[in-house]
Specification:
alpha/beta, Rossmann fold, six-stranded parallel sheet, two-stranded antiparallel sheet, 6 helices, 26% strand, elongated, binds zinc ion
Length: 191
């Protein structure tokens, strides 16, 4: 079987791609699309997510439209490095929940020739840059910002407004707890 990456393995170059955006912006769908395309090209793919993200399924990256792909839950970023030997493409979902060590892990993987694709929330519900995502965006080769649609006015939305009373930052993706809002509607909603 002819596999191009084996022929050219001595000059394999890694890359870092970040897909960042608000809730309901299609981050995970875009991650899944890129990973499935790599699989079609017979590249080996591993997908990781933090153990904190257990809202629907233990072993799958599940997006809101239920387009899913198998993944491995890991406790921390160091585990990703340990489990990514000889993998062509590493996908990381819900990366905002990982420790900041993820930035170094991702850089190491890319330097070793791995293509790393990271999806995560760029801001928390307060509009503050979320966990390792800003650092990952800084070191990335490619950054894609995806947007949702504002549920109040139909403009492009980049904020994840939380309208429940709970104060826990690690509250996950249910529709009843978050809504995507544009800047103008977010300002009005949080006044
Ligand atoms: Zn709006």
């Amino acid at each position: 079987m002819f596999i191009e990456r084996d022929v050219n393995s001595h000059k394999k170059v890694g890359t870092i791609e970040v897909i960042a955006g608000s809730m309901f912006s299609g981050k995970t769908e875009e991650l899944i699309r890129r990973l499935k395309r790599a699989k079609f090209a017979r590249q080996s793919v591993e997908i990781f997510k933090p153990t904190v993200d257990v809202r629907y399924s233990e072993n799958e990256v599940v997006s809101h439209d239920e387009n899913s792909i198998r993944s491995t839950p890991v406790e921390n970023s160091a585990n990703i490095l340990l489990l990514s030997g000889n993998v062509d493409v590493v996908g990381i979902d819900e990366a905002q929940f990982f420790d900041k060590g993820l930035i170094e892990v991702v850089a190491k993987l890319a330097n070793m020739g791995t293509r790393v694709i990271i999806a995560g929330l760029d801001m928390d519900f307060k509009g503050v840059p979320f966990g390792p995502i800003p650092g990952l965006m800084a070191i990335a080769d490619y950054v894609t910002k995806v947007h949702a649609i504002c549920v109040r006015c139909g403009s492009i939305a980049q904020f994840s407004h939380r309208f429940s009373e709970q104060e826990q930052v690690v509250l996950l993706g249910e529709k009843e707890a978050y809504e995507p809002l544009c800047r103008s509607c977010y300002i009005k909603a949080t006044k």
